[in-house]
Amino acid sequence: MKTKNDVTKKRLAQRIEKANSEVPQSIQRMLDDAAKQKDFMVRLGEGMENEFQSDQRVMLATKAGDFNLHDNAVSQLAGKYNISSREIKKYLAGNFPGDASWQHDTVAYILNQHSQHARQERFLMRAVGNEVRGVLSEYYKVFDNEILTTEFLKYAKESGAQFAGGHYNGINLWIEMLLPQTFGISTVKNGDVEIAVGARFKNSEFGASSFQMRSFFMNAVCANGVVGENLLHHRHVGEKLPEGIELSRELILTNTRKTKLEVR
Predict the structure, then answer these.
(1) How far apart are CA 199 and CA 227, in angstroms?
(2) Among the listed ranges 13-17, 57-61, 217-221, which one has the minimum average pLDDT value?
(3) Whole-angstrom Cα distance, residue 42 to residue 50?
(4) What's the CA gap between 138 and 44, in Å, rounded?
C-alpha cells in the first residue's frame, strides 16, 4: 500500500525527469534573446518626432530606428497614458470584425494622440533584435538576466539541486530547482512526513515582474510546492538613468554585481 511519503518521492522523481528535458530549452531561448538585446532611451511627448505606426503590427519609428512593439510594450505604453490596457489588448488580438490592420491602425492612432498631447518624458526601451519588448521608466534598475540566472544555476547545482520546473515566454523567466532526495520531518498530527525542498527564481527584464528568489517545499498534499521564505525581492527601481541614447553596459553590470552576490 502506497503512503503519502511514497507519493511525494514518486512525484519528485517525475517532476525532475520532466523538467530536465524542458527547462534547459527555456534557458537557451533566454540566452539567445540576451545575445540580441539592446537598450536605448527615447523621448516621447509633445513636439517629439517619434511616431507610432502600424504595418501588420504596431511599430515605433525613432532616431535609433524603426521597431516592432511587443504586446507587453504596447500595454505598458497604454498604462503610462492612462489608456485601458484591457481595451488595447482587444485590438491587438483582433477581437473586432474585419482584418487586423485597421485594429492595429487604431492602436497606433490612439498612442500618437496621447503622446502628442502629453508632456515630454524619457523612456527606456528594451529590445530584442528589432522588437521592443519593454517600455520602462527612466528610473528602471536594469539587471543582466543572463548573469543572475547563471549564478543561481551554478550554486543550485553545486548543492546537488536539479531542475524541477521553469519557463521563458520572451518576457518572464522562472526556474525551480529541487534537491533530488526527500527529508523527513516530524509532525504532531501526521507523524513523519517526507518533503522535498528547493528554490524558485523569477525575473523579467521587460518590466513584467520584480526580481524574486523564494524557498519552497513539496509534499504529497501539495505537489505544486508550498512557497516558503522570500529570500530575495527587488523591484526594478533605481537612480535616474543618464542622458544619451545608448544605455551603458557598465551601468547594467554595476546594478547586477550586488544582486549577483545576494543570489550566491
Answers:
(1) 9
(2) 217-221
(3) 8
(4) 12
Is residue 173 scored above 50 in pLDDT? yes
Q: Which residue has the cell 509532525?
A: 187
Query: What is d(CA 213, CA 177) in angstroms, rounded to the nearest whole number?
Result: 11
Q: Tell me the one-letter amino acid at 134.
A: G
**Largest pairwise CA distance in the chain:** 75
Report CA-CA distances (Å) from 121 to 22, 45, 83, 108.
Answer: 41, 6, 17, 18
**With a threshold of 0.90, does the pTM exceed it?**
no
Residues 138, 143: Cα–Cα separation, whole Å: 14
> What is the rounded CA–CA span in Å between residue 204 and residue 206?
5
Give the single-character DSSP code of 241. Answer: P
Calpha distance 135→259 (Å, rounded): 23
As a whole number of angstroms, the distance between CA 201 and CA 263 comes to 9
**DSSP label at residue 180:** S
Tens digits of per-residue pLDDT, 41-64? Answer: 899 998 888 899 998 899 999 887
Cell numbers standing for residue 254:
554595476
Mean pLDDT of the chain: 84
Give residue 210's identity as a one-letter amino acid code: S
Cα 29 from Cα 201, distance rounded (Å): 16
Question: With 0-12 CB in 10 A as exposed, 13-18 as middle and 19+ as buried, what is 236?
Answer: buried
69-72: long-range contacts at Cβ-Cβ below 8 A with a sequence spacing of 24 or more? 69/131, 69/132, 69/135, 70/131, 70/132, 70/133, 70/134, 70/170, 70/171, 70/206, 72/133, 72/134, 72/171, 72/206, 72/207, 72/208
Give the per-residue pLDDT at 230: 52
